[in-house]
Design brief:
Layout lengths: L5 H17 L5 H7 L2 E10 L17 E4 L6 E6 L8 E4 L5 E4 L9 E5 L13 E2 L1 E4 L3 E4 L5 E4 L2 E4 L4 E4 L5 E4 L8 E7 L4 E8 L4 H16 L11 E3 L1 E2 H4 L2 E2 L3
Parallel strand pairs: 1-16, 7-18
Antiparallel strand pairs: 1-15, 2-3, 2-17, 3-6, 4-5, 8-11, 9-10, 11-12, 12-13, 14-15
């Protein structure tokens, strides 16, 4: 795996500087989120035909996938069936608090999270995905050592970690030590377009690159698997990306 060239790193520093200058125009909840996260390049979410993705056209409870902030790091995009218009206070595995700003879009229903499990980094691949958004009711062992039945959760069947996407991917059960990293989104109300702008919480990117470098290079046909996503990211239903989803 080749690291980003120095020119890319300098460009990233410039991006951070310009993003910091723009924070004043963003909601206070977003400012709180990036205190323990990073602002990356502002990337427009687009459909496979290269037209802009519109928030209002997303199907409710459909599991969509795109890659951000790097070309090989998968993210879930979900339009929940309820409004999430308030920030949620969360804590990383290092004990740092941050605000997840809630949903975006016309009804504040669209959320996004890294699809790399916070436990052992299970993630969607072309062949299979053990981590999936589940709109139907599922049973799992909660953090209170009791069994629960709930719908609308992100469930990793590798080790049984369960996350609540309506609460910033807070851990509901299983061995995951912290929430999934949240992908910060912006919505343009004039065009209904969606943009990914950063990551809040504790990401798994560095250990992910280290553990899966060889397979990722083969799957993405590049040695630059840690190259930043630039300009646009293409959104597809998870069923179109993975041959098989493991549902437990």
């Amino acid at each position: 795996m080749k690291k980003e060239a120095p020119t890319d790193r300098r460009g990233f520093v410039k991006l951070c500087a310009s993003a910091a200058a723009a924070i004043a125009a963003r909601p206070n909840s977003l400012v709180g989120a990036v205190k323990h996260g990073e602002l990356y390049q502002r990337v427009q979410l687009r459909k496979q035909d290269d037209t802009p993705l519109r928030a209002s056209t997303l199907k409710h409870n459909e599991n969509y996938l795109f890659f951000y902030p790097f070309v090989s790091t998968p993210c879930f995009l979900i339009r929940l069936d309820k409004t999430i218009d308030r920030p949620v206070r969360l804590t990383t595995g290092r004990g740092e608090s941050y605000n997840w700003p809630g949903g975006v879009g016309p009804e504040h229903q669209v959320v996004s999270f890294s699809a790399i499990c916070a436990h052992k980094m299970s993630h969607p691949s072309v062949q299979v995905s053990f981590i999936n958004y589940r709109s139907e009711e599922v049973q799992f062992a909660g953090n209170d050592s009791q069994f629960h039945r709930r719908s609308n959760v992100i469930y990793c069947c590798s080790e049984g970690s369960v996350y609540d996407p309506a609460e910033g991917a807070r851990v509901l059960g299983g061995p995951a030590p912290h929430p999934l990293a949240a992908i910060l989104l912006e919505h343009d109300p004039n065009t209904d377009a969606l943009y990914a702008v950063g990551v809040a919480g504790q990401s798994m990117f560095e250990p992910y690159f280290s553990a899966f470098a060889h397979r990722l290079e083969l799957e993405f046909k590049t040695e630059h698997i840690d190259q930043l996503t630039r300009h646009s990211a293409y959104v597809v239903p998870l069923t179109q990306f993975c041959l098989r989803q493991v549902l437990c």
